[in-house]
Design a protein that fits this description.
One of its GO terms (molecular function) is nucleotidyltransferase activity. It comes from [Eubacterium] hominis. It holds the Pfam family ThiF. This protein starts with a strand and ends with a strand. Strands 1, 2, 3, 4, 5, 6, 7, 8 and 9 form a 9-stranded mixed beta sheet that branches. The chain contains 6 helices and 9 strands; from the N terminus they run E-H-E-H-E-H-E-H-E-E-E-H-H-E-E. The longest helix has 21 residues. The chain is globular. It has a single domain, classed as NAD(P)-binding Rossmann-like Domain (Rossmann fold, 3-Layer(aba) Sandwich), CATH 3.40.50. The chain has 219 residues and is an alpha/beta fold. About 2% of the residues have low confidence.
Length: 219
Amino acid sequence: MKCVFIIVGVGGTGSLLARDIPKLIIKQPHKMVLIDGDTVEEKNMVRQSYQSHDIGENKALALSTKINTFYGNICEAVDKYVTNKEIVELVKSYDGYIPVLIGCVDNDKTRMLLEQTYHDLNDCIYLDSANSEYDGNVYVKAKIQGNETGVLRSEKYNLSQDIHPADKSCEAQVAEGNIQYLVTNLKMATTLLEHISAIVHGSAKEGVTIVKRFETVHY
């Protein structure tokens, strides 16, 4: 099974994940795509996979350039915020690949868009990551040849349409000296990487993975 791993959001969790996926897919037929319309800022140096020379560059472009420099031409970038229709069209351009949609975003509005994308695709594996300061979770649902397993986040609770559901963004709290988000983002990226490793080896683990401080559980 050939997969195209599409990471939507390459900030705190997504950039750390994107940094390590190539180690799982090098010399294999898989591809990866990074999607983000955000620009690298100085404050991103604390907990994201960017360096000072990336400041002012688009995040997806900056990170994909690094990946391709080290691992060959395995990563594409979309340097804007995309619609559901645009992601579906992107997937269609990868004929013969199973899309693995990976949401690493911090708002429910985009999660709703990604869930709609999942519904609009014939085949798809969708991993949705979310975290607070200490805790996080990953929802995994797969639809392959008409068979569906796993769960979407909206099947457990109602998603809001708030652009920023938290009172303060992760970046704002990091700027105030709260570095716990760095630890939690690393744990979330590692959890996603474990799921991706399972997919690469043909055994996707649908369901929910709960990540707590000093604890990780999948059910």
